[in-house]
Amino acid sequence: MASLLKDPLLVFFSVFAFMSCVNTTLIDGSGYILYCPCMGRFGNQADHFLGSLGFAKGLNRTLVLPPWVEYRYGQPRSTQVPFDTYFNVKALQEFHRVITMEMFMKDIAPLIWPPEKRISFCYTARGNGENDEVEKSCSAKEGNPFGPFWDTFNIDFVGSEFYGPLHYDIHHSDMAAHWEERYPPEKWPVLAFTGAPASFPVQLENRDLHKYLMWSDSIQKKAKYFIKNKLPKGAFVGLHMRNGIDWVRACEHINHSPSLFSAPQCLGYRNERGKATHEMCFPSKDTIIKQIKRHLRKLTDKATSIFVASDSNHMISDLQEALKRQEVSVHRLEPSNPHVELAILGQANLFIGNCISSFTAFAKRERDARGLPSAFWGFPPERSANSKHDEL
Question: Is Glycosyltransferase there in the keyword field (predicted)?
Fold first, then answer.
């Protein structure tokens, strides 16, 4: 040992060899999957995440956890929020190998994915086809949030790879074997997709993966604080109201789009439980109040409060007036924080949400994983005006 310390050069090479071994053990020889969560806001991105997690498991590649893409008022470019700001990475590792994108780019990318080897993956060329270069490209960084997302990590692509006719459903065929054959990890250590390698809404087979998606300590702490300090003691009902102007316009198309957005969560993936209605998408005040009263009566533990999450109108005054006889107080989170609101909804004694909304779908999946009851506005639809109905 003394002779080793006397030779600085020997010390240097010993340390270098040790660090090389450490780095080698960090690298997953089965490869990695990266993607840009570039479709929609949080609810849509969460659906895509579950599908991407299932896809990575099927291909036996480590999933690189992308930051969440957010669109903030007044900012022309998207903001990327690290994955672990909202969720617990260790909980996901109980199901499959994952690593945050920040850690991947810092520790792994320099070793296996240098700038000259960064190829973007897409099903087919993206662009208007006005020139040969566009026709041969995924145009991975064209537009917002695509450009800002990859720029966050100083990633530029030197080429494009079109993987069609391969697809992401690894549950009903030997598709995983086809991916392995075409893109062996020895030659393609990183598959970097321009969009999520998943479907929307989340594929039924990937839905239960939500049980591994646990809130970060920070989000859980804020949710528990609100419940303990802002709500009265006792059971509470959580509500999700989707009623912003963009939603109102989307609901106008519901009759022509029976599987709009997250409708399969209540209607089934083949509409086996009926068709979507305007009342499910944009319920009237009468429907909302009637359902709340009905569910309050059915609760085993008497509810003392109602918590409302909304993208626009929380209907606080309307609900307070309508529920005076029920002796429940009505609350919202101020300032609004969608992730904390979801965490609160996940702990309610009962949750009523919007069948068509992916925000509701997130809360519903979390509650299903915990065995908690949920319901939807306007579902199932009332059979007819003459049918037996609840007396208010």
Answer: yes
What digits encode the pLDDT tens for the residues 303-331?
999 999 999 999 999 999 999 999 999 99
- Give which of 211, 208, 209, 229 is closest to 344, Cα–Cα: 229
Among candidate residues 137, 107, 105, the one with its CA nearest the CA of residue 121: 137
**Amino acid code (one letter) for 35:** Y
Please, what are the domains in the chain?
21-207 (3.40.50.11340), 218-376 (3.40.50.11350)
Beta-sheet strands, E only, within 43-131 = 62-65, 68-70, 79-81, 98-100, 119-122
CB atoms closer than 10 angstroms to residue 391 = 5
Q: Could you tell me if 29 and 185 are in contact, meaning their C-beta atoms sit under 8 angstroms apart?
A: yes
Per-residue pLDDT tens over the stretch 79-108: 999 999 999 999 999 999 999 999 999 999
Angle between helices 338-345 and 358-370 (to 10 degrees): 40
